[in-house]
Amino acid sequence: MTPLVVRPRPQADALAARLRAAGHAPLVHPLLELRPGDDLASLSHHLQHAQIAIVVSRHAVLFARDFLLQTGQTWPNIEYFAVGEASAETLREAGLTGTFPVDPRSEGLLALPGLQAVAGKRVVILRGNGGRELIADTLRERGADVTCLSVYHRHYPHQDGELLCRQWQQAGLDSLLVTSGELLDALLAATPVEYREWLLRLPLFVPSPRIAEQAAQAGFLDITTARGADHDALLAALELRKKQ
């Protein structure tokens, strides 16, 4: 298959390499760039005073890890939670153990036993700029003292949508791998009206029911929900579709 990979580098290149090794011919065009966040300078201070740290994406782990390494600091010995398996695996690569839910959504995270009795505890949420407030709001309702840190910043470069769609069609694009709601919005925003029907008919692979619902509301007709956003999950979903 010839899927479009729109996640930011270097993850886009790593996913594409994995797909090529399995016999696919991905097209890589990141719609998002990630840059260091405004709150990195206070990261160590907040971690040292917290009992719980929550990472909402693997990018949050990577930017936090790189900053701590560059400044000669270490991760404290506290409880770590991750929204999904991909971010938990990135924690493991950093030498940490993170608890994660089977349901890779904020709702799944908030259902974990370890996040029920949090009254009086200091919780740090590592994330990008913006995003959903459900985790922070719910934990505050449960009595936690919550601090959200923007450890990376999302930047969406301008796209020449007409040129891109022509190139994608000429290259035989036949499927889409979209790993977040923000990337789905960016893809739709970059697609001119005259190419929208073509795009909406392409098989779309997403990592969670929430994004699948968002895609359905946007008009996508062929949506597959993978078991997560990690490379193995996306490849498995693509392989299953290839056999059908």
Descriptive report:
There is one protein chain. The protein has 244 residues and is an alpha/beta fold. The chain folds into two domains: 3-32 and 160-243, Rossmann fold (3-Layer(aba) Sandwich); 35-155, Rossmann fold, CATH 3.40.50. The protein has helices at residues 11-21, 43-48, 58-70, 85-93, 106-110, 134-141, 161-170, 181-190, 193-201, 209-218, 231-243, and strands spanning 3-5, 27-28, 33-36, 52-55, 79-82, 98-99, 122-128, 145-155, 175-177, 204-206, 223-225. The strands form two sheets. It has a six-stranded mixed beta sheet with strand order 3-8-7-4-5-6. Strands 2-1-9-10-11 form a five-stranded parallel beta sheet, with helices on both faces. Helix 3 (58-70) links the parallel strand 4 (52-55) and strand 5. Helix 3 runs parallel beside helix 4 (85-93). The longest helix has 13 residues, at 58-70. It is elongated, with a radius of gyration of 19 Å. The mean pLDDT is 92. GO terms for molecular function: uroporphyrinogen-III synthase activity. Pfam families: HEM4 (PF02602). This is Uroporphyrinogen-III synthase. Belongs to the uroporphyrinogen-III synthase family. Residues 13-235 form the Tetrapyrrole biosynthesis uroporphyrinogen III synthase domain.
